[in-house]
Specification:
Shape: elongated
Distance between the termini: 85 Å
Bound molecules: adenosine-5'-triphosphate, magnesium ion
Strand content: 5-15%
Largest sheet: 8 strands, mixed
Helix content: 40-55%
Length: 463
């Protein structure tokens, strides 16, 4: 496919209407960016972007009900799918390597394409016959040929383009892996040169790129390429530090290879779980000294949290991943009693179990460990299910509550009651047959008579 070639595409009615509407106002209106790349690549586009010579006010006026997001002059035209219409523009400045100092509108399509990052993203499709879905490819930078020969190349001078906006460093990796492209040598050299600039990026922008790469079926490729280019050490130093840290010998590679295999073994659609897989062993680099990684899950939970805060992940997700990393090292053996299984569930939290088992299964697979006949993950999962179906696990399921203790035993309301309930729960976890009202009240009375009992300790602390 060459610049000016006729390209027939399947155009959604809503998109066709926007292009026709703008043409009706005498404006130039074309498809641009990702959708053209996908069409040339014979893939169904995810979203449809239109670029036009019409100023945003005119676009908004032509399509009542559309919304105009300042300051970039992108108008979203309502419909199925919604269409983003952006006025041709040039961006200038980039003194902070993150965003342009000025944006200028009302230029030509050629200028608009020249400001884009990579040749494969700098093509446009200009309609010839909308009803027939026919148009011409506008491809001044040779994006179609690059896609054909599998090359990712910066538009214009690579050094300058990668210096302007450090996000392009990360986008390069995403597009290279997504479309299986080699990096054109000058583009690759520029990425290496400018890799340290990635430290200037906002956590949010990096997060969005990383999440998109984590959704690739083989996400490991993107992380290995980032490492290769010097980006991983800047964006995720906690993870990069696992290079060279030894890993159980059944499979080749070190702790970084293992972490990336774990990611690939987890479902691509579950970003939170894949992040947990990515970071589950980050504690190993600093706990290596003892030769056994003692406490690596504690250290790992801290480091994972630190990385995820930097990426501005929502707090709920950070907390969840932290818990997964913290608990991923449980060591189940068939001689665990039911009480031990119950304590495990209580320690970990029943809500976390499905993800924790998924993480551990991926971790095991990524270590080359096979599921044993007895004492494996599936056995523990089955036992946990049985325990969860039957036995009481938290204070609310005890046959007595705080009021009962206050009324029947004359305990003062306060922390003593909570501590007594804790002790009762411990006892019931060991022996579920104790969970009857009279039996628990007897037990509570015994506990109160102990020297240094809950009552004594409580009274002491309250004094
Ligand atoms: P995807 O299919 O993953 O959405 P995309 O190419 O559509 O990929 P977007 O981030 O949606 O990516 O951006 C749309 C277009 O805007 C790109 O194709 C590219 O031409 C241009 N673009 C986006 N971000 C940048 C950037 N940081 N620097 C230069 N051009 C960019
Ligand atoms: Mg897009």
């Amino acid at each position: 496919m060459r610049d000016g070639d006729l390209l027939r595409i399947g155009l959604p009615e809503a998109v066709s209407r926007v292009l026709a509407g703008l043409a009706g106002t005498d404006a130039d209106a074309v498809l641009v960016g990702g959708c053209v790349r996908d069409l040339v690549h014979r893939e169904q586009p995810k979203d449809w972007d239109v670029a036009t010579s019409a100023p945003p006010e005119a676009v908004a006026a032509a399509f009542p009900g559309s919304t105009w997001q300042n300051p970039f002059g992108t108008v979203t035209v309502r419909g199925d799918p919604p269409v983003e219409v952006t006025t041709f523009r040039v961006e200038e400045g980039y003194r902070d390597r993150r965003r342009p100092d000025t944006v200028r509108w009302g230029t030509s399509l050629e200028e608009d394409l020249a400001r884009r990052d990579f040749t494969i993203n700098a093509m446009a499709w200009r309609p010839v016959d909308l009803a027939a879905g026919e148009g011409r490819l506008v491809d001044p930078h040779g994006g179609a040929a690059d896609l054909e020969r599998r090359l990712l190349r910066a538009v214009g001078d690579p050094g300058q383009r990668l210096a302007e906006d450090a996000l392009r460093l990360v986008r390069a990796v995403r597009f290279a892996v997504r479309y299986d492209l080699a990096l054109e040598p000058a583009t690759e050299a520029a990425i290496r040169d400018h890799a340290p600039d990635a430290a200037l990026l906002s956590g949010e922008r990096v997060r969005e790129e990383l999440l998109r790469m984590l959704a690739f079926p083989t996400a490991s490729k993107a992380f290995l390429l980032m490492e290769e280019l010097g980006l991983l050490a800047v964006l995720l130093p906690e993870l990069a530090a696992l290079r060279g840290i030894p890993q159980a010998k059944r499979l080749p590679g070190d702790a970084l290879d293992h972490s990336l295999r774990t990611v690939d073994a987890l479902p691509a659609g579950d970003a939170r779980l894949r992040l947990a897989g990515l970071l589950h062993d980050v504690g190993k680099a600093s706990t290596l000294a003892d030769g056994h990684f003692i406490g690596h899950e504690l250290q790992g939970a801290r480091l994972a949290e630190q990385a995820l805060r930097r990426l501005r992940l929502p707090n709920a997700d950070i907390g969840w991943i932290r818990r997964l990393v913290r608990h991923h090292m449980f060591n189940y053996t068939p001689d665990w009693t039911d009480a031990a299984v119950r304590r495990f569930v209580r320690r970990v939290g029943a809500d976390l179990l499905a993800d924790l088992f998924a993480l551990r299964a991926a971790d095991n697979a990524a270590s080359g460990a096979e599921e044993p006949e007895a004492g494996g993950l599936e056995e523990l999962r089955a036992r946990v299910d049985r325990v969860l179906a039957g036995d009481p696990l938290d204070q609310r399921q005890l046959a007595v509550d705080g009021h009962d203790l206050v009324r029947a035993l004359g305990v003062q309301p306060g922390p003593v009651v909570g501590r007594l309930l804790d002790r009762l729960l411990e006892a019931v976890l060991e022996d579920p047959s104790l969970n009857r009202r009279e039996r628990l009240l007897e037990l509570a009375a015994d506990l109160l008579r102990e020297p240094g009992s809950a009552r004594g300790a409580g009274a002491h602390r309250e004094a």
